[in-house]
Amino acid sequence: MKIFALVDCNNFYASCERVFDPSLKKRAIVILSNNDGCIVARSNEAKALGIPMGVPLFEQKALIKKHNVAVFSSNYQLYGDMSQRVMNSLRLYTPDMEVYSIDEAFLRLDHLQPRNLYEYCKTIRAKVLQWTGIPVSIGIGPTKVLAKVANHVAKKQTGVFDIRSQQAQDEILKVMDVDKIWGIARRWSERLNQMGINKASELRDASPTII
């Protein structure tokens, strides 16, 4: 059986800024677009304040000033360098890796069995943080889509989540809205909803002929 681990850097742009300024650790952070016009990235603290993604900066200035939110222009040279450091660290743990984006990578782990892959991924997570200063979450699954789902859960829990068991898949997919699945955008989700498919488990169990 194939086994994938999706490694995703947490709030990557904000985390990069924190590496070089530890005083930002608990502070809300927003990152701006190239022309400093729109908010393109937020720390968890900024999300908790209700600052939306992709909105013009001027619309949020009052909230930003009230809560002393740190505001940064995009520094893509820094983010690219930090991404390379993270990816080079991950390559030490598997020869089969696919860089998916600046802050995400799929690792193939099936060749490592019978190793305890949950503990192995905890080690990867700890070492990436130690070597680069960037926190990551890791989702383990039998497909890339399920590894993505597992990563979504990992971010809300302990940082690593394994969704390979049927029980774990059933519990999570039955409460996950279909539009949260990787590759299902708004228009597709609307069409699926019209077919009576609202949850991820319903899409999984739907007739292939109908789909």
Q: Can you summarize the main beta sheet?
A: 5 strands, mixed
Annotation, overall tally of beta strands: 8
Give the H and E element order: EHEEHHEHEEHEHEHHH
Distance between the termini: 25 Å
Strand order within the widest beta sheet: 5-6-1-7-8
Choose one word for the global shape: globular
Write down the overall mean pLDDT.
96
Q: Structural class of the helix and strand makeup?
A: alpha/beta
Figure out the total of helices: 9
Low-confidence stretches: none
**Proportion of β residues?**
15-25%
Your description of this structure?
By secondary structure, this protein is an alpha/beta fold. 41% of the residues lie in helices and 18% in strands. It is built from 9 helices and 8 strands. It has helices at 12-19, 44-48, 61-66, 76-91, 117-132, 144-156, 166-173, 186-194, 200-205; strands at residues 4-9, 29-32, 39-42, 70-73, 97-101, 104-108, 136-141, 160-162. It has a 5-stranded mixed beta sheet. A 3-stranded mixed beta sheet has the order 3-2-4. The mean pLDDT is 96.
Structural features:
211 residues; alpha/beta; 3-stranded mixed β-sheet
Q: How do you describe this structure in short?
A:
The chain has 211 residues and is of the alpha/beta class. Helices cover 41% and strands 18% of the residues. The protein has nine helices and eight strands.
Helix and strand topology:
Blueprint: E1 4-9, H1 12-19, E2 29-32, E3 39-42, H2 44-48, H3 61-66, E4 70-73, H4 76-91, E5 97-101, E6 104-108, H5 117-132, E7 136-141, H6 144-156, E8 160-162, H7 166-173, H8 186-194, H9 200-205
Parallel strand pairs: 2-4, 7-8
Antiparallel strand pairs: 1-6, 1-7, 2-3, 5-6
Helix pairs in contact: 4-5
